[in-house]
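Summary for the steering committee. One of the milestones for this cycle was to obtain a three-dimensional model of the protein with zinc ion bound, which we needed before selecting residues for the alanine scan. The sequence and ligand used are listed below.
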Amino acid sequence: MDLPRYHRLTAPYYRLEGQRCAACDAVQFPPRTSCGACRGADLKPYRFSGRGTVYSFAEVSQPPRGFVGPYVVALVELEEGVRVTAQLTDISAEEVEIGLPVEMVTRRLQEKGPHGYLVYGYKFRPCLERSAARRAS
Amino acid sequence: MKDVFIIGAAQTPVGEHWGLGLRELGATAIRAALADAGLEAGTDRIDALFVGNMLGGAVNGQENLGALLADAAGLLPIEAWKVEAACASGGAAVRAAALAVASGAQDVAVAVGIEKMTDTVSDRLAAGLASASDGDFEASHGLSFTALSALLMRRYMHETGASREDFAPFAVNAHASAAKNANAMFREPISVEDFLRSPLVAAPIGILDAAPVCDGAAAVVLCSREALAAHHRPIRIAASAAATDTIGLAGRGDLLTLGAARSSAEKAFAASGFGPKDIHFFEAHDAFTIITALSLEACGFAPRGEALKRAAHGCFAVGGCVPLSTCGGLKGRGHPVGASGTYQIVEATAQLRGAAGANQVPGARVALTQSIGGHGSIAVTHVLEG
Ligand SMILES: [Zn+2]
């Protein structure tokens, strides 16, 4: 990813920052220039909690250039009702199921090579409380 | 708007054309379509060329395909440019040509769909294909083209209770038709057992759920009623429609309703006066079996979540209520991405002329074609009448 583009994306990538509409209260991710619900333009930054559940998932074994597979990707439904597409981490494809509670973490998304910079952003991992409970049982 | 007719249609065989580049493939299809219409480049009046292509820049390092192919086909100084709508580019090029003629601005327009996918290595091709998705919020997170389809398929299976096997009829049907099509990439039928044994590429998607990487070009010549000649066998474009949906899957209210496919189909049915029950065969965008199912539901051939049940009853096979992918579809004939939408129109034209040979649908008079890009973010739908 080119640096200006990465810079533009740091709020959503680092903080899972979307928007809340002043007119209708709807929240959305990623940020847009108008509200997806009412098309209003008065939008305030809104930071999502980062907690949600797996809505669907897939394993990528033949990754596009710039990525090293295999890894698991998912549609995550955030507790605010909005969906986000992301990689899952700290879990294998065999352990994932639809409905699994997950939480956002900041991880490396892309590596630019020895002279470049690293691209960080959100991924989702199984909720720690749940993982701990599973280990205990 | 004026009536628009298809008077010429041609295709190159679909496959791995190591010896042919963009210009040779494109010019071959254009010249063959003109010959089919009884027209000659440089002699007869041809007003414009619209080139449907997705990956020229990303994979071949070649843009400006309008000039490239106008030059290669001997059509200079014709008006020509590229139309890009991801995997729907081939359908969009036909629509652009149809609009040009329908508006009265042009009398004879050519649309060519072309893709040359085998010139590069797989990770560069995967990155090129992924550029049809949301660059900031899908592709930059490592979502491949296949993985996005897998997200749709996994959720569909979860909501409907479908198994992988339930998707088999689409692939089996496509290969059965492709086996009889000399231009198809795959000439061997497959069984349900073959389908189930095929390796997974992005679970739950197996290799036999997915259309192959390949090269190909297909072209049609369109004209107004005034430009029709006695020797033509015209097929009327009864409707041409396009629509869009969110670029990312995450933004869709109902993930399993392809909004652009549904909206463009509704517009095409309204404009043509035909409905799903009037359609004699359907050239669907069967790039993945899940997309076939969602396209069938979006076009009204099955309620939401019911396409696989109807497929299990043979509804979409040869001799069924709505034969699907009658010349092999994207799955069996092959999916040169930006060309596939034009292949659909060329094959439908052959069917409506009664010239589809071993693949002929008896008595076919009304056809539906649907070309889908970016996992449903764009769709182009045509109704053709013979
Ligand atoms: Zn609003």
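Key point for the committee: Helices of chain A lie at 3-8, 10-15, 128-136.
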